[in-house]
Every structure is written in C-alpha cells, then in structure tokens.
Amino acid sequence: MIKQRYTLQRGLTVITILFFLIIVFAVISVNSGKMNLSPQEVLNVLLGKGTDKQNLIVFDFRLPRIVLSILVGMGMGAAGIVMQSLLRNDMASPGTLGISSGSGLFVLIFVVYISSMGVSSYIALPLLAFVGGLIAAGLIFLLSYRRGREISPIGLILTGVALGSGYGALTTFLTLKLDDSQMDFMLRWLAGNLWGDDWGYIAVLTPWVIVLLGYVFFKARMLNTINLGNQTAEGLGLAVKREFLGLSLAAVALSSGSVAVGGSFFFVGLIAPHMARKLVGPNHKLLIPASCLAGGLIVVVADTITRTVSLGGDVPTGIVITVISVPYFLYLLAKAN
Amino acid sequence: MQNKSAKKRVTKLSFTMYMVVGLGLMILMSAASISFGAADMRLATAWEAIFRFDPTLTDHQIIQTLRLPRTAADLMVGCSLAVCGAIMQGTTRNPLADSGLMGISSGAAFAIALCLAFMPGYAYWQMMLFACMGAALATGMTYFIASLGKRGMTPQRLVLAGLSISMLFGALSQYLAINYNLGRALAFWTAGSTAGAQWGELLMITPLFIAGVLLAVALSPSVTVLNLGDEVAGGLGIRSGLVKGLSTIVVLVLTGLAVVVVGPVGFVGLITPHIVRYLVGVDYRYIIPAAAVYGALLTVSADLAGRLINKPFETPIGIIFSIIGVPYFLFLARKQRREFE
Amino acid sequence: MECITVEQLDIAYDEALIVKELDLKIPHGKITSIIGPNGCGKSTVLKAIGRLLKAKSGTVYLKGADIRTLPTNEIAKQMAILPQTPTAPSGLTVEQLVAYGRFPHQRGFGKLTKEDKQIVSWALSKTQLTEFEHREVDTLSGGQRQRVWIAMALAQQTDLILLDEPTTYLDLAHQLEVLELLYELNRSQQVTIVMVLHDLNLAARFSDYMVAIRDGKVIEHGSPERVMTKRTLREVFSIDADIMLEPRTGRPVYVTYQILRDRNKELKKEVAT
Prior knowledge:
The complex is a heterotrimer of chains A (337), B (341) and C (273).
Chain A: H1 8-31, H2 39-46, H3 52-87, H4 99-114, H5 121-144, H6 153-175, H7 180-191, H8 199-218, H9 220-226, H10 230-235, H11 240-262, H12 268-280, H13 284-308, H14 317-335
Chain B: H1 2-35, H2 43-51, H3 58-92, H4 104-118, H5 124-147, H6 155-179, H7 183-191, H8 199-226, H9 230-235, H10 240-262, H11 268-280, H12 284-308, H13 317-340
Helix pairs in contact in B: 1-3, 1-12, 2-3, 3-8, 3-10, 3-11, 3-12, 4-5, 4-6, 4-10, 5-6, 5-10, 8-10, 8-12, 11-12
Chain C: E1 2-13, E2 16-27, E3 31-35, H1 42-49, E4 57-62, E5 65-66, H2 72-78, E6 80-82, H3 94-99, H4 114-126, H5 142-155, E7 160-164, H6 172-189, E8 192-196, H7 200-206, E9 209-214, E10 217-222, H8 224-227, H9 230-237, E11 239-245, E12 252-259, H10 263-272
Parallel strand pairs in C: 3-8, 3-9, 6-7, 7-8
Antiparallel strand pairs in C: 1-2, 1-4, 4-5, 9-10, 11-12
Helix pairs in contact in C: 4-5, 5-6
C-alpha cells in the first residue's frame, strides 16, 4: 500500500493547525506591547469590564492592528498563490512582479494630491491602489508576453523587479515634495508598517478581502487544471483566457487592497504559498486556504515580534519580514534551474 | 592590410575625439553646476569665487563650501562608479553588471549606517574602511548565491541575487536609520546625494580615487582579452585569477568611496559603459578611460538636473538615475534574454 | 460518415502562413494518422482541429457543427486532446491526474461524484493502470505516463481523441505499448483516434486512414496502401524509398531510403516515363 504524500486529511489538519496558531499569536499579541496586559485583563476588557485605559489599548490600538495584520497577510497569501499558479512560476508574487510597488505609487499620489481634497480616504485609497496595481500588471504583461513562446521564469521576475524598483524610484521622487511627516509616513509605508490599523479602514478591507478570497477559493478547481498546462487545460474545456483574466484581476485586487492599507510587504506573497505548498501539496482546494493562513500567520508573528522584542523604536513590520525572507528567496533562486 | 590599419587609425582617432568632446562637456557642465542651483548666480561670479576668493561675499562662500565640493564629488563619484561598472562588465562578461544592481552599494551603505549608529566618534578613514568591507561582504554573497545551482552564473541570476541582497541590506539599513535616529540627512544620503559633500572628506578620498582609476586603466588591456573567455585568455598568457582579483579590489575601493560620499547610487555603472561602448567600440583600453570621463559627465549633469527640476526641492541623483536607469535596464534585459534563449 | 471536416483552413504564425487552404475529412470510428516532414504544419492542423489554435480563415466542423460556435466546455465533452509533451505537476498521483478528465462534466466547486469515481476506475482498468493508481505520475516510465494521459482522455468520455506525437521520446517498446492501447480502444470502444505521428511505419501499421501533409497542404490521403507509395514519399519527404509489405501485419512499410539529390529532376523523370 503506497503511502501518499499529501492527503486530504493531512491538509485539513494543517489548515486547522495554522488557524489555531494565528489565534494563539493574536492572543499573545494582544497581551504584549509597551504595556503588558495579562490574559485576565484582556478577558475583562472583552467582557466589557476593563478600565478606560485598558479598553483604549485593546480596542483602539492592538485589536485593529492584529485584525489588520491577519487580513493583509491573508490577502497577500492568496494573491501570491494565484500568481504563482497562473504563471507557473514559483518566484512570482505581488512584490516580484512589481504590482505592490505600482499600487504604492498610486497610494502616494493619493497622499500627496487627493487626501487634501476631502474625498473619503477609506474608499478612495484601496481603489486607487487597485488602479495602480492594474497598471503595473498590464505593464509587466505587455513587456513579457510573447505569443506562442513561454516566458523564461527568471526573465519574468527580472522584469517585475526592475519595474518595481522603477515605481519605487518614482515614488521616492514624489516623496521629496512632501513635508517631513508625510515623508516619514511614506518611508515607513515603503517598509511595510501596517499603518491603517483603524476600524474605518478595516471595515472597508474586510469585505474586500473576504469576497475576493471567496471567489478565488471557488475557482480552486480551475487553478488545479491550469497547472496541467494551458493546452491540456483548454483541451479539458477550461476557458483558459477568461479564467486567467478573472483570477489575475482578483489577485491584483487582493494585493492592492492589502498594500494600500498595510504597506508594502514584499515577501509575504512569495513565502506564504511556498510554505503552504510544502505543507499541503498541489491541490488548490487546500492550497488556497493554507496560503492565506500562512500569510496571515507570517504577518501576525512579525508584528508581534516588532512590538515585543525590544528592537528599539517603532520598527516597521516589513523590515522583520524582509530580513527573514531574503535568505529564503536566495535559496529559491539558487535552486531554480 | 591597408584597410585594417586604416580602421585602427580611425578608431584611435574617434576615441581621442570622443575623449576631447567628453572632457569639454564635462568642464562645461561642471561650470554650469557651480553656477546654477537654488540660488542662481552668474558664471562670472563663479569664476571670481574660484580664482579671486573673497570670504566676505556670501555668494563666494556658497560656491566654495557647497557647490565646488559638490561638483568635485559628482565628478569623482561618477567617474568611479562608471569605471567600476565597466570593469565588472568586462571581467564577468555580464552586460548587466553594476555596483547598485549587484548589491555592492547597499552593502557599503549598510556598513556605513552601522558605523554611524555605533561609532559616533568615527574618523573618516574608518568609515571608508567599513564601506569597503560592507561592499566586499555584499559582493561575496551575491556572487556565491548566483553561482549555485545547475546553470551557474547567468546575468539574470546575478542581478536577482544582487537585488535581493540589496533589499536585505536596505532593510537592515532602514532599521538602523529609524532606530538610531540617523535622521532626514541620512534619508537623503540613502537616496543618493552629494548634498553634504565637504572638502575634508574629498581630500582624504582623492588619493584612493586616483589610485583606483589608474589601476583600472592599467588593467584595461587584460580585461579586453579576458572578455574572450577564461580559457582563451589563459592561452594568450593572461593570468585571469590575478586580473580578476585586482579588478575586484578596484571595484570594492571605488564603490566604497563612492558610497561614502554620495550614498548608494545605482545604474551609473550600468548605463555609462554601454553608451561608451557604442561610441568607442569594444576595446576596454578605450572603454575604461572613456567611461571615467563620461561617467563624471553624466553624474554632474544629473546632479544639475536634480537641482533644477522641482525647484526649490532637490532631487537626489540616486533617484534620477533610477528613473532613467530602470527603463534602460529593462531594454537591456530584454535584449539579453533574446540572446540567451 | 465524417467526424471532423476541415474546410479551406488557413493558419498563420506571426504573419507567416503555415497551413494553406487545407481541406480534410476525418472518418468516424477509425484511426487516422497525420504524417509529414518537420514544419509541414501537421501539429498546427491538429491544434486547430482541437481549437487550441485560431485559424486565420476557414472552418473546422465537429460532427457538423462549426467549433467556433460551440462553448469550449461542450467541445471537451466530445473531443479529448493530448498535446505534445504534457507535464503533470509533481506530487500528483495517477488517480488524481486521471480524475481531471472529469473536469468538463463538473459544476461549481467540483466534487467528484460516485459516477465520476466509477468512470475514473474504469479508465484506469482500460489502460491497465489500476495497480498504479496511488503512485506519483513522475515516478512512472515514459510509456506508463503516456498511458496515464490517455486514461485521462478516456475519463473525459469522449468518442474522439486527438493526440499530438504521442510516441515521441518513447523507446521502441513503449511506443508499441501506447499505439496498441489506442488500437484496442478504437476496436473495442469505437473511439475515433486522430494522431500526428512522425514514424511512418508505425503510422502505416496502426492506422485505417492516413493524411500526408507538406508545406501546409494535403499531398495524399487514404488507406495506408494508397499513401505509403514511393511517389508519395518522394513528394512529401524528398526521399527515394523502397516499400514492401511487412510480414507480421501485411501493412506497407519503407525499408530503406535515399535522400533525393534533385527533387525536381526525379519528378520530371517520373512524369516522362
């Protein structure tokens, strides 16, 4: 009897474990920070029996930040797995394709020009970021797509990273027009700092992420089939072009939303799918939830580290993630054929 | 036979012509750089400031303490980075090589940030040393990672490895900057700017600069032959190990000093050799000197542009080169890919 | 009765016309092979029939219906296609890959019904892969892997299967393994098979109907006896071949051949005599 590597049972177990880990770290995160709260005190607050100060800390600072971390991580994790599967390239991610940076440029445009116009930033911001992401996606598509020929995997990533740094340069260029506080904000945003930890933004981001995640999860079967190759998938009756378009839009929307409100996390969308694939195998019905949860977990853990381990000042979460992720990316690069 | 020597004469002639043109433009742009800026001045004032310096005039002060060192810094940095790029492209046979792209500048920058954060009483030469060590570390890591795996060191992998190392060191530098409050000045420097250049620093660096460039020029004939491939070069009597070793030292030193003065600037080393190659051909005996001149020219012009657009805000040269560099890099990468596939 | 009719097909790749005004009729319930030299357009024609490529002009009719008017899902229920060198993602088991054949029949989220699972088992047994059903596909031999893809096509439950060079890269024994399986499927299940083959002798041995293409046009078509002649081979492949009837099966095969020195001269000589 041959032992299968990836079974449904194992997959579901892994997903459940990931879910619980997120909850555990969320709890740790609520407890820790500049002012430590014991679990008992947190419980009191949740039950409505906390002091004003404790309520403030939990409801206005920590809880929104944790919820945001999870949402952002899930969004990036899902976007990452979709991109990697659609492009059949395991180094693809919103960061390496330049899509996060493209969104970022538009976020900056918002900060510089539009926020003073009094348009509700809660809606305008993610929408603008989405537009930026679409433009970036369109550009890399234009530059890389060659009819009939397969795009060289490393070539695609190279183009994406170059475009990304181009958007980054433009962004920094525009940053110079800002005053000190705005500039500081942008610099932190570029490093990935979970700045939108405010219930208003979360209220917009949550349905955005949930609906898109639902769509992507529903399309798990399509992603599985696309993995067999465009021609085989087409032969099986999958409308490849249409599904590709729909899923790409979803991925761009997910990553733009996360990036708009959470800051530019370069590596989450790259690492989470890999972890998920190693844990649950290639079936997207398991992969998509696993990748989302892995993404959420990465960001929550990194954020907890940022706020507990005394690294000094307010270090953007993205820096921690970058430092941990680069070695892994290099390993992937070394392994690539 | 007659044709060949005629062609050779033409190449030598065109080289000399391009060098003269380049130097001329360089002087012109330097003059412009000294004269223009946030506070406009006439060329005559600049002339007087240099040759008949009057310490009581503010204009003269500005020129002597701000503009002149700044222009000198631009020239040196541009020259160094371009020469580095040329040497790297020659010795690795990789047309996408550049100090910025391969993480070398970021490594140096990180080392400097470390220095600023932890050794407040630093001496300038210590900072230089740190910069070179940081550059060496980053270079080592990039080359190592890029050469692992089956296909070995392709240009694309080198760049990707370099970019990731760049991001790693960038993140670490950012951390230091935020944590140790190295301030807005550092942010500026990190974007690549000669705004804070001072005579003292420049004077200390100058001997190293001159030595580096001279060594590069001395190595140039060997680099040309190395371009034919290690084995062919070996057969022709070149000791590739030695040449590569010396080249690496030149690159580390020149990049290190550039980073100390201006911060991590990329793309100069990428773009300049390509432009120069277009003008003077593929012989590195011409490319390296020409790169030295045109790199200086490009950087001075970029700095001038950076001060004129977006007035009164300054745009650091790092940004300007990124904005020009990325599309150019993409164009090169596409060309590369077509040749590689 | 025709299964597939191709009318005046023009197919272009980046402005260069590969297939020119091609007409073709594929018979129902038979094994058809498309042969021709490299670059003649045989794979291109197959892909156009399989709607994987869009033709510049002309029409492909599947059982009388223009394929452009049929939704791709519907086509998948009538026609299965096995492209050249298909790759399965690593980690997939035989059973999982064959199950993909049920894709066109699934709705929504796509859980496998009892019927689906039965069909998958049947496909596995038809291709003698039942004992391998939990093995990972990339641990199998070349011939076995091709059988897995054929099983997937079977699971699609179509009565037409298109195959693009199913025997390339396989060694001799595995080539026979695959072709004998296709032969048996055709004889026992009346599955219409259309395949592009590069090996003429195998094509002649296993086909009922052959189509020889050169430079995007059909040069000759019909039974193997009609197509495998000295003259056709000379026109299509530029070789001077000796044909004999093979002892085991009685089918025509080429035994030895020479490269034609001057193709036109030989043709003129032939016409003159």
